Amino acid sequence: MLPPGSSNPRASKNIEKINSLGVEQVVTACSGCYGIMKLSYSELAPLEPRVLHISELLAALVEDGRIKLGPVPRRVTYHDPCHLACHGGITGEPRRLLEAIPGLELIEIARTGKDALGLGDGLPVLDLVELVLEPASD
User: Fold this and answer.
1) Model pLDDT for residues 85-128, shown as the tens digit of each residue
2) What is the pTM (predicted TM-score) of this model?
3) Dihedral sign, Cα of residue 120, residue 7, residue 19, residue 64
4) Which stretches within the chain are classed as H helix?
């Protein structure tokens, strides 16, 4: 989020350029960029296209039957990126996408969704990894 009354010439230029493209959607794989475009840009000027995280788009395409997923026999876990889950509110789509993969077993960790622990904004935080990846108790 931007401080009240702030301006950002680069963001304003990006908004103007994106709006001039005539696209209906902007899709990003970066949770930080998603948060900036979805939440912060709206404080400067309206962004005309709908902003989607890639997990939202892919989950919708899989659920509509427009994408078929092949089997992946693996056990995996998913760590919610703090910018996506806590700030963007996106927690279900990544899981629905993973659960749609035949043979893939999703193992939840102890703190997920909006309760997930961040990993230090990209800083080396190996001491937190054990806590973050602690399995959920039954």
Assistant:
1) 877 888 899 999 999 999 999 988 776 666 655 555 544 444 44
2) 0.76
3) positive
4) 9-20, 31-35, 54-63, 82, 92-99, 126-132
